[in-house]
Amino acid sequence: MKHQMGLYEETFHSMAAGRKSVEVRLNDEKRRRIKAGDEVVFTRVPGGEQLTVVVENAVVYPTFRAMFEAIPAEAFDAAGWTIDEMVESMYEIYPPEREREWGTVALYVRLVDEERVVRGN
């Protein structure tokens, strides 16, 4: 199955360069459909560039903190960040009430092919 998602510019470039191998999301209804072997097409916001990844694993955690305690910061391209900083950066995107409602998911991804990064506007 193929899924579509947006990524902010810095995160998009980090994933395109191969520095980010785990994408963090709320485990909402849309993300619950993502399974190992699925493809995700990420679109850079703003800009429109796209890259395609294959999901190698999707691991559910009750909170961002639990996720960040279990997975090395390097997998998020966040070496040098504290867990508190990582959690707070997620709360800038996702409200804590949604985290409590849905939990979180770590999507372990692999870039399909660097040549498949499609330039947008």
UniProtKB/TrEMBL annotation:
<feature type="domain" description="ASCH">
    <location>
        <begin position="5"/>
        <end position="113"/>
    </location>
</feature>
<dbReference type="InterPro" id="IPR015947">
    <property type="entry name" value="PUA-like_sf"/>
</dbReference>
<dbReference type="Pfam" id="PF04266">
    <property type="entry name" value="ASCH"/>
</dbReference>
<dbReference type="InterPro" id="IPR016645">
    <property type="entry name" value="UCP016134"/>
</dbReference>
<dbReference type="InterPro" id="IPR007374">
    <property type="entry name" value="ASCH_domain"/>
</dbReference>
<protein>
    <recommendedName>
        <fullName>ASCH domain-containing protein</fullName>
    </recommendedName>
</protein>
